[in-house]
């Protein structure tokens, strides 16, 4: 019997402050300008009341976990055989309306941070295990996100969640950044299928990702979600930005 390590997985306990304006040095008028975008707020309203989206999230997460359970157990065994540590990596992320939640992923690194500073994974990252590199390259490490979808903390489609320290950092540099929190974070997203996936090396790349996230909220429909899921299945395993 393999111990999946749910009780012993790493937890990065980073406390997010209650007030956006008090935690960010940006001028509040500039920081919250996105709230004056009627199309964005209308899209957020539709997302917030989309019962069909939630139904598909639950159905998809249940089906995925059940159908893939033998495969997920095999991955867990290989992780335990390759290196010491828990099967699952657990970390605080920022979700809908700025609330934090604990995300589940397969552990892909031999070392992991626990504190207010989280180093983003890079290509040929020395912390990544050999099997972990394969999991990241194929996005298999993200499959435990289905647990978060089932719990209502994530959706199948939405802005990809970042580590809490990264959210705080980028919020100081990208004025519209916190507009992403108008939607539940997703297992995949509009930005990711349009080339903005993986490491963000500069402000321009993050600003472009945020722009796509907000466009998703503005244009949201079930048809758009289906298109994003299909594109993810087609290009996900071959995306050069996955590492």
Tally the helices: 10
How are the strands ordered across the major sheet? 1-2
Task: Tell me the fraction of residues in β-strands, as a range.
Answer: 5-15%
How do the SSEs run, as a string of H and E?
A: HHHHHEEHHEHEHH
From the spread of the alpha carbons, the general shape counts as globular
Biggest pleated-sheet summary: 2 strands, antiparallel
How would you classify the helix and strand content by structural class?
mainly alpha
Walk me through this protein's architecture.
- This protein is mainly alpha-helical.
- The chain has one domain.
- Helix content is 43%, strand content 8%.
- It contains ten helices and four strands.
- It has a two-stranded antiparallel sheet. A two-stranded parallel sheet has the order 3-4.
- Helix 3 packs across helix 9 (203-219).
- The relative contact order is 0.17.
